[in-house]
Design goal:
The complex is a heterodimer of chains A (406) and B (348). Chain A is α/β, with parallel strands linked by helices. Chain A has 15 helices and 18 strands. In chain A, the strands form four sheets. Chain A has a six-stranded mixed sheet, sandwiched between helices. A six-stranded parallel sheet of chain A has the order 15-14-13-16-17-18, sandwiched between helices. The mean pLDDT of chain A is 88. Chain B is built from 16 helices and two strands. In chain B, strand 1 and strand 2 form a beta hairpin. The relative contact order of chain B is 0.16. Chains A and B meet through helix 2 and strand 6 of A and helix 10 and helix 11 of B.
């Protein structure tokens, strides 16, 4: 079990303080994402951890030993560092480059041994670069360069691996490749600390996140504790939507759209089975004040409303919407300038939504040829109710609804 | 694959070594008195105590052993040293335009030598002369290094600008010193700015070899470090290199090698810039290969340039520094075009 412990670390250049009272410790098997806005000190922190910069105050200890009091070679056997900007215009082959990782293990008068060569070859294989082993570095693509460099870092055989934006310029395939490797390494007992500017990537791959802001640690913890709208707004100064991705379940971070100044009508959406999703997104983007309901729990409409922080009324999944629920939702409907009845099938469970629509101050009923859902009725009461509604509101297509509202 | 590459390396070295021998024999044989290659070999063997049925004439022996050989062998060592120093400096500064002459390190050597002669230090002890040249080179090298480095980062552009500044300042100082020394003629001025190999004697070469050879040898031990510096200083530190120590060592060794060369040949331009560059295009950036290959190439190049200078307008002699400039300047222009096409100008 290895540990890197940072204790009360400060880093100053001239009179400006770049890092301020940084303390944390990381154990084996952790993949730590270092996030924060540009200029928050991520790179500087990594450089201090990697022994490239000496801290002004404070210590960085690996297994209890201060890395800034070690010799360069000794330190390089414990900690490796992959910088972000990399001057890559030289014609060393991938093989030669990766062999450089063995530098701390051999004195100036020693040659690289067979063992060194074998170890570096194994790392080239591990990152999947065997095919390009003899290609000059400057003839590689960005992703291949990064993989080759990773192999170099790995052949250094350190317990602690620091990376600065390892995938910032890479396509998603190479990004996934690199992070899968990092994840695997963390499972093998290595300590990995990587700066990542993309919060989605950080929450996708890391086991723990340290959020830096102006040279201080703002939050340190699990993904859900750190990647959170409150923290993001405080650190980045933007309102963000944080929600698990529908297909993967990993947290997704998006900046909320800016609200328009113009007074827009308040809209209440009555949906179900995802029928209100498109309209919700569109109106939300345009800055409408939206309320929603009544929706069943776990309905995708409700999930979206919750994620966007839209006020809504909900009931248990598969339960029947009762009088009490309608009474609650009626307040929202009566407050709205316009109520939109989306196109969804009606059965005993949600017939209450049609009753709710009766209270609309102005009612729009969407009927759209292109809709994947059809307004079928599986309840006797429903059809009668709907005919009544037709008399009270106007029937419009999705496009026309938008035009009318905007 | 691995063995193949090592084989390729040795093949290149052996080819260059054979070429060098050929060029040496050619250079020794050419001149007012033409001497056939066989006689040259005979003379050398005879000189070292082997007797033949018909021993070579004493006149030929003198011409070869005391006039031509010292000159040609000096050219070889100077070319070898300047190209090695040039390759090392290009690696050290991660700058393809760095070389002892561009950075003013050669000029520093000249200044040291000129001061040594003018002040009379050189006549106190034979060794003070090359030592002063060496000191001058080191001073210039560290001046450029200090100018170009800021907070541990060496700027690629400021290396060149700093080098230009230092180099023209030192050349100005050399001219000033020479102007104020009455016993010096214009030809001396040319020697210290253009270089020359005429009239070299064994003693001059033997005096510097005990220091030159170990310095060159040590420089070669830093080729792995030069490779690592190519990855950037950050990466070098992270890989366990004591970058400050290594950079200073390479700088000192290059300066020693340059200063000693300058003390016997004056400043000869373009060898340190052109030769490593030329071979980089052929063998690539691996300094473990580039350094020895460039050094051998530099030796061949300078011996050839000196030969050209002697035979083209015979019986007049063109100084070797002029020949290297005439060949080097067009090559430099070619490099400029090449970099413009490759877009390297932006990165400088």
């Amino acid at each position: 079990m290895d540990t890197i412990e940072v204790r009360d670390l400060y880093y100053r250049i001239n009179r400006s303080t770049i890092l301020e009272s940084i303390s944390f410790s990381v154990d084996s098997c952790e993949l730590v994402g270092l996030v924060g806005p540009n200029g928050s000190g991520k790179t500087t922190l990594l450089r201090v951890l990697g022994g490239i910069f000496k801290p002004s105050i404070g210590t960085v200890c690996v297994n209890g030993r201060n890395i800034h009091e070690m010799g360069d070679r000794e330190r390089a056997k414990l900690v490796s560092y992959m910088p972000q900007t990399f001057y890559g215009d030289f014609s060393l082959s991938v093989r030669e480059l990766v062999l450089m990782g063995r530098y701390p293990y051999r004195g100036r008068l020693e040659r690289f041994t067979l063992e060194d060569k074998e170890k570096s070859l194994r790392m080239i294989e591990y990152v999947g670069m065997s095919r390009l082993m003899d290609r000059p570095f400057n003839k590689l693509s960005g992703g291949e360069k990064q993989l080759a460099l990773l192999a170099k870092i790995l052949s250094q055989e350190t317990d602690i691996i620091l990376l600065d934006e390892p995938t910032s310029n890479l396509d998603i395939k190479h990004q996934d490749r690199i992070f899968s490797i990092l994840y695997e390494l963390s499972r093998e007992g290595k300590i990995l600390i990587t700066a990542i500017h993309n919060l989605n990537v950080a929450s996708r791959y890391c086991s723990r996140i340290i959020m830096l802001s102006k040279g201080r640690i703002e939050r340190d913890g699990g993904v859900e504790d750190v990647i959170e709208p409150g923290v993001i707004e405080k650190v980045y100064g933007v309102k963000a939507v944080v929600a698990p991705d529908i297909s993967t379940g990993f947290l997704n971070v998006n900046v909320m759209p800016r609200q328009f100044g113009k007074r827009l009508p308040k809209v209440h959406l009555i949906g179900g089975a995802g029928s209100a999703i498109n309209l919700t997104r569109e109106l939300f983007r345009l800055g409408f004040k939206i309320t929603g309901g009544i929706a069943h729990n776990f309905d995708s409409d409700l999930t979206l409303w919750n994620n966007l922080g839209i006020e809504s009324v909900n009931v248990e999944a598969f339960s029947v919407i009762g009088e009490g629920d309608i009474k609650l939702a009626r307040k929202l409907v009566e407050r709205a300038d316009v109520t939109v009845l989306c196109e969804f099938p009606v059965g005993p469970g949600n017939v209450g939504n049609l009753e709710l629509a009766m209270f609309a101050r102005r009612l729009i009923i969407i009927e759209d040829k292109n809709s994947p859902l059809h307004r079928n009725f599986y309840d006797r009461k429903a059809e009668t109710l709907f005919r009544k509604l037709l008399g009270r509101g106007e029937v419009l297509s999705y496009e026309d609804t938008l035009t009318l509202l905007v | 694959m691995k063995r193949e590459r090592a084989g390729k390396f040795y093949l290149t070295i052996v080819t260059l070594a054979i070429l060098l021998c050929g060029v040496l024999i050619l250079a020794v044989g050419a001149g007012a008195v033409r001497i056939a290659p066989v006689s040259i070999v005979k003379v050398i063997l005879h000189f070292f105590g082997i007797n033949f049925k018909r021993n070579p004439e004493q006149k030929i022996i003198s011409i070869i052993m005391y006039v031509r050989m010292p000159r040609v062998v000096t050219a070889m060592f100077v070319g070898f040293s300047l190209a090695a120093a040039g390759a090392a400096m290009q690696g050290l500064f991660r700058n393809p335009m760095a070389s002892p002459d561009v950075l003013g390190v050669s000029a520093g050597g000249s200044l040291g030598a000129v001061i040594a002669i003018h002040s009379g230090i050189a006549f106190l002890n034979l060794y003070f002369f090359p030592v002063m040249a060496m000191a001058g080179s080191m001073l210039a090298a560290f001046l450029v290094y200090a100018l170009a480095s800021y907070r541990g980062h060496t700027s690629l552009l400021f290396v060149i600008i700093g080098g230009m500044a230092v180099s023209s300042f030192i050349n100005g100082l050399i001219s000033t010193v020479l102007l104020f020394s009455k016993q010096w003629e214009v030809s001396q001025f040319i020697f210290w700015t253009m270089g020359g190999l005429g009239g070299r004697r064994w003693e001059q070469l033997f005096m510097i070899l005990p220091l030159l050879l170990p310095a060159l040898g040590l420089l070669f031990f830093f080729s792995r470090d030069l490779n690592l510096i190519m990855l950037g200083e950050e990466q070098a530190v992270a890989s366990g290199m004591n970058v400050q120590f290594v950079k200073k060592m390479i700088l000192i060794l290059s300066a020693i090698v340059t200063g000693l060369s300058v003390s016997v040949s004056g400043t000869i331009g373009f060898v340190g810039l052109l030769i490593p560059h030329f071979f980089r295009l052929i063998v690539g950036d691996d300094y473990r290969v580039l350094l020895p290959v460039s050094a051998l190439g530099g030796a061949i190049f300078l011996v050839l340039c000196d030969l050209l200078g002697r035979v083209i307008l015979a019986p007049f002699e063109i100084r070797v520094g002029i020949v290297t400039s005439l060949i080097g300047a067009p090559y430099l222009i070619f490099l400029i075009f090449r970099y413009q096409r490759k877009g390297l100008v932006e990165t400088l």
